Amino acid sequence: MVFIREELKGEYMVIQGKQIYDLAARLFPICRSITGSGVRQTLEILKQHISQMKITEVPSGTKVFDWEVPREWNISEGYIENSSGERVIDFKENNLHIMGYSVPVDAYVQLEELKKHIYTEPAQPTVIPYLTSYYKENFGFCMSENQKNNLQEDTYHMVIKSELKQGSLTYGELVIPGESKEEIFFSTYICHPSMANNECSGPALAVYLAEWISGLTSRRYTYRFVFVPETIGSIAYLSRHWKEMKNNVIAGFNLSCVGDNDHYSMVESRYGDTLSDRALKNVLRYHCEEFMVYPFLKRGSDERQYNAPGIDLPVVSFCRTKYGEYPQYHTSADNMDYISPEGFQGSYEVMTKVIRALECNRKYKVKVLCEPQLGKRGLYPTVSRKGQYDKVYGITTFLAYVDGKNDMIAISDRIGYPVDMLIDIAEKLMENDLISG
Predict the structure, then answer these.
(1) Mean per-residue pLDDT for 152-172?
(2) For 86, 172, 217, 436, which has the most beta carbons within 10 A of its beta carbon?
(3) 311: left (phi over 0), alpha (psi -120 to 50) or beta
(4) Residue 29: what pLDDT?
(5) How confident is the model at residue 437 (pLDDT cuts 50, 70, 90)?
(6) 389-400 helix and 419-431 helix, angle to the nearest 10 degrees
(7) Given this model, what pLDDT does residue 98 score?
(8) What contacts 205, CB < 8 A, 6 or more positions away?
(9) Buried (b) or exposed (e) across 218-237, using 16+ Cβ within 10 A?
(10) Structure pTM?
(11) How far from 415 is each of 101, 185, 271, CA to CA, in Å?
(12) pLDDT band at 389 (very low <50, low <70, confident <90, very high)
């Protein structure tokens, strides 16, 4: 058995966090939605890092389970002008100013009428909210509550230059083959405009995880990465792949809001008892002092689709601060200042440790009866003295549970040793022909 060596220490990790942050910064200005040129532009940037990614177009009107792929939406311009020709808001300054999927408009209105089409977040008077209207034709403008309150009685020119057409929904897929057809699945979404943590962080982290996995000298499992528009994208993808995924996927992770520097969190699978739940909880337990575990009842991202009855994929969501649980969420305050290289560094480290744990998660069995003689194998001090037993306690305790019934994660949970440490112990024991697995 060849184990994956730890490659996550020191300066390497600092560099990785900065690289992931820089990729998120490239994605940040793009106006994305569930369809359109922004999605394609995002995927082309990601493909520069993972060239083997396959990009798929699903035509508008395609039936995907109980849904239908909507018309494609693109926008080139949007603004509100006062009678002096001054632009009160401009899409080019912040793409959150236009409600997603707004239909075209070119009209002159008075302030009272204008306000019917303005959306704000009154509890946060300085931020621009993020709004959409995907499945009902509408239009709207978003601004801060302070901006709205400062509008004067006047004639205003409302302009949105957008297009709804028969086009397609676009998603990206990367499959990295391993020794087995069994799969570890990663999903993230590419459908929100300029929000750093809620949108750009997931794809940026996924790309660097895919690069790391591709560079491993051996892979026990096959790895599947998808970059999809949230909800409709995951439904469209599942409509084409759910049967093979149901047969092959043994663990899966939805990546969202992974770039901030606050506590870690996860949303459990539907019953909280999958290999994904066990692996992520185990790593978080030893990686950080505090983390939040939300039940599936608190779901809100694409874990909804992957855990749906009949689909039943073992998928959990991994976040730093969970979506919806930080005040910047779905507002202009979710910007590049809210995320950091250090935040990405931590998320990258957690997920690479999870991958390593899954790759090495076997049921081992000791090959001798009673405790093996460790001293003659160089695994026990040659001189026995007070306090030395602590150094080999991990080995002897691990051996006490290597009975062919417990996998590595179960033993780690029981004896209180990180999986990383147990992997190193297992390697020594395998080298000395003391365990099989």
Answers:
(1) 98
(2) 172
(3) alpha
(4) 98
(5) confident
(6) 80
(7) 98
(8) 20, 188, 255, 258, 259, 344, 347, 348, 351
(9) ebbbbbbbbbbbbbbbbbbb
(10) 0.93
(11) 53, 28, 24
(12) low
Number of neighbouring beta carbons within 10 Å of residue 387? 6
Instruction: Determine contact, residues 77/161, Cβ cutoff 8 Å.
Output: yes
pLDDT in tens, 323-336: 999 999 999 999 99
What is the DSSP secondary structure assignment for residue 129, as one 8-state letter?
B
Look-up of token digits 């230059």: 161
Q: Which two tokens stand for residue 182?
A: 């069994």
Kindly list the strands in the beta sheet with 72-81, ordered across the sheet, starting from the edge strand earlier in the chain: 87-90, 72-81, 155-165, 105-110
Q: Distances from the Cα of 287 to the Cαs of 181, 356, 376, in angstroms? A: 30, 14, 34
Helix axes 275-287, 408-415, angle to 10 degrees: 40
Length of the chain: 437
Q: pLDDT tens digits, residue range 110-145? A: 999 999 999 999 999 999 999 999 999 999 999 999
The tally of CA atoms less than 13 A away on the side-chain side of residue 413 is 15
Sequential DSSP letters for 320-384: SSPTTSSTTTTBTTSSTTT--HHHHHHHHHHHHHHHHHHHT--EEEESSSSS---GGGTSS-SS-
Which amino acid is residue 3, in one-letter code?
A: F
Cα separation of 172 and 190, whole Å? 9
The 8-class DSSP code of residue 135 comes to S
Between β-strands 222-228 and 291-294, what pairing exists: parallel, antiparallel or unpaired? unpaired
* CB contact at 8 A, 301 and 253: no
Q: What is the pLDDT of residues 9-42, one digit of tens each?
A: 444 446 899 999 999 999 999 999 999 999 999 9
Cβ contact 352:397 at 8 Å = no
The span from the CA of 192 to the CA of 171, in Å, is 14
pLDDT in tens, 355-375: 999 999 999 999 999 888 887
Tokens 């060596």 label which residue?
Answer: 5
Residues 87, 83: Cα–Cα separation, whole Å: 10
Cβ atoms of 72 and 165 closer than 8 Å: yes
